[in-house]
User: Which sequence fits this backbone?
């Protein structure tokens, strides 16, 4: 596999090319995993040679341009859904995210995520099934249930690009996880809902989540993260998550910190029925987490008040910062901001270089 530039975004069939579903480790020979194996052999996040770095940069630049072309054709109202990859398919929070994403898609929004498992997969599942009846989601969850948790695939691939000795069981479990998702595609509506994934080969050991319409897959995670947060102009919804989700939250905070006006402050919605973002974690005597939680409902309003004090618009901005599971309220907030988001997207597409600078709000 080489780092050939692309003329268009990836489709699921591109990434899953070479898959033999009858082979218990078939996903290891897909285009997606072969790309990751090459990436690992060539040094991973720190490419071994300048030639490799330049080839990856050309590929990622072509993806960025293909994404611009795709967005120009779709003209979507993009809503980001961020969340942790460890959320299992069997947890109530997974179903809640899928239900919310299904509603968003039905209401004319286009969901964009980081394209991984967990909360991200749940969002694409909901979007996929948006045109079906409500019972269809229950059928899909039942198909996913036998492979509810993605196995730990960290360090699955060695420096030679091959599976590490003793990890064959994990490889088979990952294949079953992927195959369960493919069974859902077999029952998907004839007119499936559209969605966008922006993943990275930095986490490429995970099999492709196959529910999205298009995949802007990058080698450099930093470029991917910037695209993910910047493109979600209509708002971003944060399901339960860990370190990666927290990084995305504070990237979003930074952009909103410097927004030239309250109108351009992008809605930030923290969505979890268990109050994960509104309570601190509880620890046992052994130091282990007994009840997870990362409290942000105090620190984030404080940041907004501080950031907007000189502009005297903190109240209007705080109205776009919500800790809620109220779907009608979420829709009201997103719909109110949608005209501003559409105008910002139009500016980005008409002059991407100037608009990218404006997206960073000239922080100098």
Assistant:
């Amino acid at each position: 596999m080489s780092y050939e530039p692309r003329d268009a975004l990836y489709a699921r069939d591109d990434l899953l090319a070479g898959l033999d579903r009858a082979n218990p480790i078939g996903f290891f020979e897909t285009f997606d995993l072969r790309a990751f194996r090459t990436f690992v052999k060539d040094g991973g996040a720190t490419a071994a040679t300048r030639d490799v770095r330049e080839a990856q940069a050309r590929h990622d630049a072509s993806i960025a341009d293909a994404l611009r072309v795709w967005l120009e054709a779709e003209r979507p109202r993009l809503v980001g859904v961020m969340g942790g990859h460890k959320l299992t398919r069997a947890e109530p929070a997974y179903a809640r995210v899928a239900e919310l994403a299904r509603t968003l898609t039905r209401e004319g929004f286009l969901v964009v995520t980081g394209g991984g498992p967990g909360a991200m997969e749940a969002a694409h599942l909901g979007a996929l099934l948006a045109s079906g009846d409500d019972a269809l989601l229950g059928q899909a969850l039942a198909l996913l249930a036998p492979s509810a948790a993605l196995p730990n695939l960290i360090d699955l691939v060695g420096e030679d690009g091959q599976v590490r000795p003793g990890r064959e069981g994990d490889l088979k479990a990952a294949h079953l996880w992927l195959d369960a998702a493919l069974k859902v595609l077999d029952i998907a509506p004839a007119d499936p809902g559209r969605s966008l994934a922006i993943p990275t080969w930095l986490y490429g050991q995970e099999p492709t989540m196959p529910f999205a319409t298009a995949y802007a897959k990058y080698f450099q995670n930093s470029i991917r993260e910037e695209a993910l947060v910047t493109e979600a102009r209509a708002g971003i919804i944060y399901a339960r998550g860990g370190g990666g989700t927290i990084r995305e939250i504070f990237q979003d905070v930074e952009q909103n910190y410097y927004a030239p006006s309250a109108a351009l402050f992008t809605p930030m919605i923290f969505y979890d029925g268990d109050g994960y973002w509104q309570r601190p974690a509880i620890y046992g005597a052994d130091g282990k987490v007994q009840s997870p939680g990362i409290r942000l409902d105090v620190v984030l309003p404080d940041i907004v008040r501080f950031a907007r004090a000189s502009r005297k618009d903190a109240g209007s901005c705080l109205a776009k910062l919500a800790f809620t599971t109220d779907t009608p309220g979420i829709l009201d907030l997103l719909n109110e901001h949608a005209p501003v988001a559409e105008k910002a997207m139009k500016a980005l597409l008409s002059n991407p270089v100037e608009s990218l600078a404006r997206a960073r709000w000239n922080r100098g």
